[in-house]
Amino acid sequence: MGNGIYSVVSGAVANMRRMEAVSNNLSNVSTPGFKADKVPFSEVLSRMQASGTGESLQRFVKADAPVADFSPGRLSHTEDPLDLSLDGPGFLVLKRGEQTVFNRGGRLAADSEGMLVDAQGHRVLGDDDQPLKVGPDATGVKISEDGTVATKAGVVGHLKLVEFDDPRQLQRIGGPIFVAPAGVEPVAAEKTTTKQGYVESSNVNTMLAVSEMVMATRRYEALHRMIATFGEMDRRAATIAKDL
Q1: DSSP structure string for 179-222
Q2: Alpha-carbon distance 27 to 175, whole Å?
């Protein structure tokens, strides 16, 4: 089998990863605060042992881990007091079991204990690192631009808002939810304000994503035909060698 098939296989794998990322983007096009994934590609040169001729250079396509595009989505005014978006690069801090996670807001609610939660049920933390309690009915909730949360009973706390030097280092664990890997620490938000009664839409460009899916699928199918051709060439070579 010629070394060329390895380049073709690497291209097929890279396109498969792009298709998976685009598919995930399209499935979350209606998820508030969702950030589209992009798959970086790079060309890799590798030294391989060529039969009888020493070393040769072989080109491969390398698909890196998906990176979220944190450009802002469009804001929609809903007038629901528990809808919340962020203006700026910051994130809300939430608790997912024992894990600290981050998102960009969305459709908030009160759980059975009256704690403020996001659409996935994660409790929203205040700047004292404790869940914010707004009451089971969550009536009369006001969230000011600086993140102060108040109900009819008065101020109940202040949203913990953070920013990252490079948010692209965050790792997605599902939909609009991210975690910070080891060594990546958030800082208190200085460039971010809250907007009550607004929801940030997904930043997925549907038409562009569909076009990208079509192109990636066609490339993937073409590369698979090339792999099949390599296989057929090997079978013919084996048959000829057997007949000699």
Answers
A1: EPPTT---EE-SS-EEEETEEEPP---HHHHHHHHHHHHHHHHH
A2: 9
Task: Decide the pairing of beta strands 177-179 and 41-50.
Answer: unpaired
Count of positions (residues) in the chain: 244
How confident is the model over 77-118, as pLDDT tens digits? 998 999 999 999 999 999 999 999 999 988 999 999 999 999
Residue 45: exposure state from Cβ atoms within 10 A (0-12, 13-18, ≥19): exposed
What does the block give as tokens for 40?
């970086």
Residue with tokens 């792009």: 18
Residue given tokens 């801090």 in the structure block: 93
Exposed e or buried b per residue across 138-172, where buried means at least 16 C-beta atoms within 10 angstroms of its C-beta: beebebeeebbbbbeeeebbbbbbbbbeebeebeb
Q: Show Cβ contacts of residue 122 under 8 Å, excluding neighbours closer than 6 positions.
A: 94, 95, 96, 101, 103, 177
Indicate whether 48 pLDDT > 60: no
Q: What percent of the chain has pLDDT over 70?
A: 80
Where are the extended beta strands (E) located within 19-74? 37-38, 41-50, 54-63, 67-68
Compute the distance between CA of residue 105 and CA of residue 98 in angstroms, rounded to an integer.
20
- Choose among 85, 93, 101: nearest CA to 197: 85
- The domain segmentation of the chain, as residue ranges, is 4-69+204-243, 75-200
Burial class (CB in 10 A: 0-12, 13-18, 19+), 60: middle
Q: What is the DSSP letter of 98?
A: T
